[in-house]
Automatic annotation (TrEMBL):
Natural source organism: Trichinella britovi
Gene Ontology annotations of biological process type: protein export from nucleus; RNA export from nucleus
Protein name: Exportin-5
PANTHER family: EXPORTIN 1/5, EXPORTIN-5
Organism placement in taxonomy: Eukaryota, Metazoa, Ecdysozoa, Nematoda, Enoplea
Gene Ontology MF term list: nuclear export signal receptor activity; RNA binding
Limits of the Exportin-1/Importin-beta-like domain: 116-236
Coiled-coil intervals: none
Pfam family, one: Xpo1
Gene3D superfamilies linked to this entry: Leucine-rich Repeat Variant
GO CC terms of this entry: cytoplasm; nucleus; RNA nuclear export complex
Length: 1209
């Protein structure tokens, strides 16, 4: 017991007891008390002065692996904690003893050859190297070479030593002293050539002689070979910061890779692939591409191309296929790098690489694996910037062959549930679900379409010739051609080519022969459509016809007949369910024609209207909306107010009557009424007639919302006053000023009372009181849940559409009802938000405009689910941030309520997540729910950051907008927070926007919630996650945090005024300062972000130093654990900087210097950045006072008087 007391020195020969304790500790039968006693003894020895000596004694080969491993841990601990204080003689002796132990290891000793022991030796040697090399251990590399030649076990240790040294110094920078790490980094790079030579020697050593077919020696040598290539990969990666060094080591990199590919050793070949991947940067600047040129010269990479080609021809085997996937990734990296490099340099000596790349692409596109075809096709995207290659005549044959194979390459033959051999094995290996497969398949098809379009733009004659041959084959017998597996993909390529020909239409028309052929093809397609009844064939012919007619002249007499035929396709086989896909396909084509090929349609608008009117009664709701959308897209060419108004009166008459009916107005007046009206108040029944009646009601709601959405999304109003005046869009007010009118405003205003009431009603159906009217036979949790698509989006998973025929009837009802409510709410919300901003002054002239915004758009948001609240923020953000201050003024009260609600909601969510994380036990279902909740909150937090950044900061500081009735606040100099290396270069200053200033007014009553929300987002971990995950999210957080900085900075400038109003007293400042300090460890992984926090902390310290002299110091002492002496020294430096006139000019003390002072002050707080966990603090800033709410007014003119200001022009 005396020996186990860590307060007493270790005396006597304790080794036998220590060995017993170690052995005891690894026995499964040891009880808790004995295990604890053993552990205490081991720890007492580890912390004693005899630790190093006892550690060496434990390395006797007669001891067990546990004892030797513990001995190595003792030695490592002594080196890391006591090495600098040891006498030089002891250091040298310890180093010699460690190497002698390694050298004397018997070749046949199983313990010494185990990875744990070898890694232990490596860790100890690396610890010495990091202290002594190169000053005290100049022969380190030569010693490594000597050790590696003793045997495979010793060579393994050397490989681990060099690998760990590179990781510690180059990759992770684990050495605590930055100057020592920088010194070692330089030494490692300078010694790169020697490390390469040593690694290559060990590769040859592991390959030397005939490897025994079995036994420990074979295993060790295989591990040595793999580890050698891993080290080679680390060495290559370490050169990436200095790519110019590649020119020195090109042969040393390629030779072992070539040997690995020839060896047939699959694990080694995979590592060799990684080595080559490290050479070729996917995204880099021109200076990083230039050193890579040497790899593409003189056919150096031919062996890699040949290897990938050979692997692609092997039959399916898990090992072979895993290697092929790695090789495909390598090929993608090589080809992508070469494309970028060729765009910059175009060196003739490298042109042969194109031939190899194209041939290998053709081989991979023929492979049964969709995954490999997809990765290969992505190279087409990289080739967009080097299209000149398509025009080089020597590559024309291989490119033509590639083009011809695109239909087969894009076959959907890898779907796991449907695939047959040879595709089945690859599909099962790569994809668990059809949805996962479809993601890769769509990427494959889109990339191939990019190639088709680019190749047509460069060689339209070749593409035209091939496509016309395909079209001839189809037109011979469409029904027979449709049975071919490539029929649909071939048709898709034809469609893309014909669409691309429109871009070079003038060149086509100049060749009379080709134009005559196109006219003949149009006639042939029209004839084929007369008698064709096969669904696929009809769909292809209709699609081909829609792509051919834009190539014709606008005056071509065939166009009226084509349009009649195409429009009749809307009702083709109206009673045939199989033809539904054809009808919906042409619905999409009609919108495309109306938006892309308007010149051909506008001349025949009367014919189009006549034909559509003839079939309108047979169209589905979806088709009606699409046709209306296409007509309004077409009508914008007229730029005529009256024509828009006439078109709306005809197309929307039934919709206006629907929303004006007393039945509908009553149904949408309250959530309870609406739920009863759509059938949820009655029991769940199998009565078909009753279900059909309720289904019809739901369809009416969907249709009459979607058709309004279709109109407003396509209706365009001239923005230039002259164009608007010419088209009759203007009226003149009493002062003689012209105002642009929106043609839909008057008609939509008639429906606004019902629509805005309905919008609030839809948000209210999720409230507890509303759900009481839902009949007990319904499962409310299923009925009012997120849709499957929304859940998949939350989890970041691909959504696989469920087939209703495979589901039970009740489940089908729940899915359709969830989809109905989600789509209806989303479309209506989007529609009304677009109307508000599109109608502009006409909307805000309405008597109830303010109520529509505050209670319709921003009302009942507390009932929205988190995911849909995120969508609401996304809908509002763009139009609101781009609108005028006059329009924004109507949104201030609504935004104030939104900010308060978001603050309460998110803080509650963050609390819940933390509480759940601290729970002791979770079952699988609770774990899934916890992950789902975290993901939803994460998405909402990111969206909110973007929302705040867009609204609260002025978008264009060069052109500040007028800010009527806004608080006059000084602009914050954000250039003072510039975190670039060059402090002389300042970023453009950002100022508060009109909304930002308005929301900070005391009358609005949301400043406390706003500041609380922003400061809490500083400390919440999602801020860091969003910053790193996405550039957009990262920018949003930066700007949101910067606004927080702006707000606090402004508070400091208006201290006397704000202090009297009680907005920020000393306790509130302390709380805010603690938030900022607490956020620093959270944001430590992003230097730019944490740099802003440093600058903010310094500036707040300066500004509040005289106001609250001890406040910031108290927080720093409590939070960062800095010493009082260091804090006083920092304060003295800041005081000198404030008082010295030379310092005030910032010529001598820049913000960067102050930042360095501050970082030095809190270095202990930030030292354990990678593991330090900061306690999260959430809540309002006490004691921020909330005054009684008051309405926000921005104009002396009442909205009720606006209509009287205008008269007809």
């Amino acid at each position: 017991l005396v020996r186990m007391n860590e307060n007493l020195p270790v005396t006597g020969d304790i080794l036998p007891d220590l060995i017993s304790a170690i052995e005891c500790n690894f026995q499964p039968t040891t009880d808790y008390n004995m295990r604890s006693a053993s552990y205490m003894l081991i720890e007492s020895v580890k912390e004693s002065n005899q630790c190093l000596e006892i550690g060496f004694r434990m390395l006797d080969i007669c001891f067990s692996i546990y004892v030797q491993q513990c001995g190595l841990q003792f030695i490592l601990h002594a080196i890391r904690t006591k090495w600098p204080s040891l006498p030089p003689v002891v250091q040298q002796l310890s180093k010699d003893r460690l190497i002698n132990c390694l050298l004397s290891s018997p070749a046949n000793n199983d313990i010494r050859s185990t990875p744990a022991i070898m890694e232990g030796f490596a860790q100890c040697i690396v610890a010495i190297v990091e202290c002594d090399w190169p000053q005290k251990w100049k022969s380190f590399i030569e010693d490594c070479r000597s050790i590696s030649k003793i045997g495979p076990s010793q060579a393994m240790v050397v490989l681990s030593v060099i690998g760990r040294l590179i990781e510690d110094v180059m990759e992770f920078e684990l050495i605590e002293d930055p100057s020592r790490n920088k010194e070692l980094r330089t030494v490692v790079l300078d010694s790169a050539s020697q490390f390469f030579d040593l690694t290559l020697e060990m590769i040859k050593q592991s390959n030397a002689g005939e490897i025994p077919p079995s036994g420990a020696e074979s295993s060790v040598r295989q591990r040595m070979l793999e580890k050698s290539y891993h080290l080679l990969n680390s060495l290559i990666a370490s050169l990436n910061p200095r790519p110019h060094l590649f020119t020195k080591f090109v042969d040393k990199i390629l030779e072992p890779a070539r040997d690995a590919f020839k060896s047939g050793n699959i694990p080694v070949a995979e590592i060799a692939i990684s080595c080559l991947e490290s050479v070729f940067p996917r995204k880099a600047s021109a200076k990083n591409y230039k050193p890579v040129v040497i790899f593409f010269e003189s056919g150096r990479l031919n062996f890699a191309y040949d290897f990938i080609m050979m692997i692609s021809l092997l039959p399916f085997d898990q090992q072979n296929y895993t290697l092929l996937k790695a090789a495909t990734h390598l090929f993608f990296d090589i080809a992508t790098c070469f494309c970028s490099f060729w765009e910059l340099f175009e060196i003739e000596d490298c042109i042969d690489n194109w031939d190899s790349i194209f041939r290998l692409m053709l081989s991979l596109l023929k492979h049964p694996s969709t995954y490999c075809r997809m990765w290969c096709s992505l190279i087409f995207n990289s080739m967009k910037n080097c299209k000149k290659v398509y025009k080089i005549e020597r590559f024309a044959p291989i490119l033509t062959e590639l083009f011809k194979y695109i239909p087969k390459a894009t076959l959907k033959n890898g779907e796991p549930s449907k695939a047959v051999e040879p595709f089945r094995a690859y599909a099962k290996f790569d994809y668990e679900t059809n949805a996962a497969f479809l993601i890769d398949y769509h990427r494959l098809r889109e990339a191939c379409e990019v190639f088709v379009g680019d190749w047509v733009a460069s060689n339209w004659r070749r593409a035209y010739s091939v496509v016309m041959g395909w079209l001839d084959e189809i037109l011979k017998n469409p029904a027979e051609a449709s049975s071919d597996e490539c029929f649909m993909t071939t048709a898709k390529v034809i469609h893309v080519v014909l669409d691309s020909l429109v871009d070079v239409i003038e060149d086509v028309k100049k060749t009379v022969f080709e134009y005559t052929i196109i006219q003949a093809k149009v006639d042939a397609v029209m004839n084929a459509l007369q008698n064709c009844q096969v669904v696929n064939a009809v769909q292809v012919l209709v699609s081909t016809l829609s792509s051919l007619f834009p190539i014709l002249d606008v005056s071509d007499p065939r166009i009226p007949g084509i349009l009649c035929k195409l429009i009749s396709s809307l009702t083709l086989g109206i009673d045939d369910p199989e033809m539904a896909e054809v009808r919906h396909h042409f619905t999409y084509l009609f919108i495309k024609m109306a938006t892309v090929h308007q010149a051909h349609l506008i001349a025949h608008i009367e014919l189009i209207w006549k034909e559509i009117s003839a079939v309108a009664g047979q169209l589905s709701d979806h088709q009606k909306c699409a046709v209306v959308e296409g007509l309004f897209a077409l009508c914008k060419l007229f730029k005529n107010f009256e024509q828009y108004a006439q078109l709306m009166s005809v197309t929307l008459q039934q919709t206006v009557e629907f929303w004006a009916s007393a039945e509908i107005m009553t149904a949408v007046s309250k959530p309870e009424n609406f739920l009863i009206y759509i059938g949820l108040g009655d029991s769940l029944t199998n009565n078909d007639s009753l279900n059909l009646a309720y289904h019809t009601r739901r369809k009416q709601f969907s249709f009459h919302v979607k058709i309004l959405h279709s109109v407003i999304s396509r209706l365009e109003v001239p923005t230039e006053i002259e164009d608007a005046k010419t088209g009759g869009f203007c009226i003149t007010d009493v002062q003689g000023n012209l105002r642009i009118c929106h043609p839909a405003a008057e008609l939509f205003q008639m429906m606004f009372p019902t629509l805005f009431t309905f919008l609030r009603c839809l948000k209210g159906i999720y409230s507890v009181s509303s759900l009481k009217v839902v009949h007990a036979t319904y499962d409310k949790a299923k009925l009012f849940d997120l849709t499957d698509a929304e859940k998949s989006a939350v989890m970041g998973k691909p959504h696989e559409t469920k087939k209703f025929k495979d589901m039970q009837r009740q489940e089908v009802f729940y899915e359709k009802m969830k989809l109905f409510l989600a789509e209806l709410s989303d479309h209506l919300q989007h529609l009304l938000i677009r109307c508000v901003f599109a109608f502009d002054w006409q909307f805000f002239a309405l008597p109830n405009a303010a109520s529509y915004v505050e209670h319709g758009i921003f009302g009942d948001l507390e009932n929205l689910m988190d995911y849909r609240l995120r969508l609401f923020l996304r809908r509002v953000i763009t139009p609101l941030s781009n609108s005028t201050t006059e329009v924004q003024s109507y949104f201030v009260n609504g935004l104030a309520k939104l900010v308060e609600h978001l603050n309460d909601r998110l803080i509650a969510r963050w609390h819940l997540i933390m509480k759940k994380e601290n729970a002791c036990e979770f079952d699988d279902e609770q774990t899934k729910q916890q992950i789902f909740t975290e993901n939803v909150v994460s998405l909402l937090t990111r969206e909110l950051a973007l929302f705040l950044r867009s609204l609260l900061l002025q978008q264009d500081p060069e052109k500040p907008r007028a800010t009527p009735k806004a608080v006059e606040l000084p602009e914050f100099n954000s250039s003072a927070m510039d975190t670039d290396a060059n402090d002389e270069q300042t970023s453009s200053s950002n100022a508060l926007s009109f909304l930002g200033k308005s929301l900070l007014q005391r009358e609005v009553n949301c400043y406390a919630s706003l500041v609380s929300l922003l400061l809490n987002m500083l400390s919440w971990r999602e801020s860091v996650a969003a910053f790193h995950i996405s550039q957009v999210a990262g920018l949003a957080i930066l700007e949101a945090v910067e606004f927080c900085f702006i707000f606090l900075y402004i508070l400091t400038k208006h201290y006397f005024q704000l202090q009297s109003n009680g907005i920020l007293d000393e306790e509130s400042f302390k709380h805010a300062y603690a938030f900022i300090l607490g956020a620093m460890p959270q944001q430590c992984l992003n230097p730019e972000f944490v740099g802003r926090l440093y600058d903010l902390a310094v500036q707040l310290y300066e500004h509040f130093r005289n106001i609250y002299p001890n406040a910031a110091q108290t927080v720093l002492l409590q939070t960062t654990e800095c010493s009082l002496g260091d804090l006083q020294a920092f304060d003295k430096k800041i005081l000198n900087a404030l008082e010295n006139p030379d310092f005030k000019s910032c010529n001598k003390v820049t913000l960067k210097v102050k930042r360095d002072w501050f970082k030095s002050l809190i270095k202990k707080f930030l030292k354990p950045l990678k593991t330090h966990q900061v306690r999260q603090i959430f809540g309002e800033l006490p004691p921020l006072q909330r005054p009684s709410p008051q309405p926000f007014f921005t104009s002396s003119i009442s909205p009720n008087t606006l209509p009287n200001l205008f008269q007809e022009s």
